[in-house]
Design brief:
There is one protein chain. This protein has helices spanning 23-32, 53-59, and strands at 4-5, 8-9, 71-76, 84-89, 96-102, 111-112, 120-122, 125-130, 139-145. It is an alpha+beta fold. It has a four-stranded antiparallel beta sheet with strand order 3-4-8-7, with no helix packed on it. The model has no long low-confidence stretch (mean pLDDT 91).
Length: 147
């Protein structure tokens, strides 16, 4: 590496190499100053929210703010016994949110929810209405993926 100014070139500097950081490592540096900070480890849940650093990275949350958590609220639609509203937030640009359900938590099988009303967005909250929630046991979750 050398520099050129006014037609004069400097002497060559010693060559160096660098390895680009992964997106998760960049996130660790942004929030924790380095990838080796113990608080930056993927499995750390500093505030006991049940959402560790790996989840907070994928969800686009701030791990240094105890109020920065992903919330899913499920409520029966009034006067509609076979419908549930799934309200979740925050919704972060660049993420994909996929609603899933299971009727048996012991089997580990989650199926993508279909047959729901178009999502309604209010600020950084989205509401999806499951129009076919007739099962006596129906459990929901939102899968989040990042680019």
């Amino acid at each position: 590496v050398s520099t050129v100014k006014g037609g004069c070139e400097s002497t060559n500097l010693v060559a160096v190499s660098a390895t680009p950081l992964t997106p998760f490592a960049q996130w660790q540096v942004q929030y924790f100053g380095s990838t080796t900070n113990p608080a930056a480890a993927a499995d750390v849940d500093t505030y006991g929210t049940g959402q560790n650093n790996q989840f907070k990275y994928v969800a686009g949350l701030d791990p240094t703010n105890p109020a920065s958590v992903f919330v899913l609220d499920i409520a029966r639609v009034s006067n509609q016994p076979d419908q549930f509203d799934l309200r979740f937030n925050p919704v972060v640009a660049g993420r994909t949110y996929t609603p899933k359900f299971s009727t048996d938590l012991t089997g580990g099988v989650w199926t993508q929810l279909t047959g729901y009303a178009d999502p309604v967005t209010n600020g950084n909250q989205v509401t999806i209405t499951d129009l076919n929630a007739a099962e006596s046991n129906k459990f929901y979750r939102i899968n989040i993926s990042s680019p």
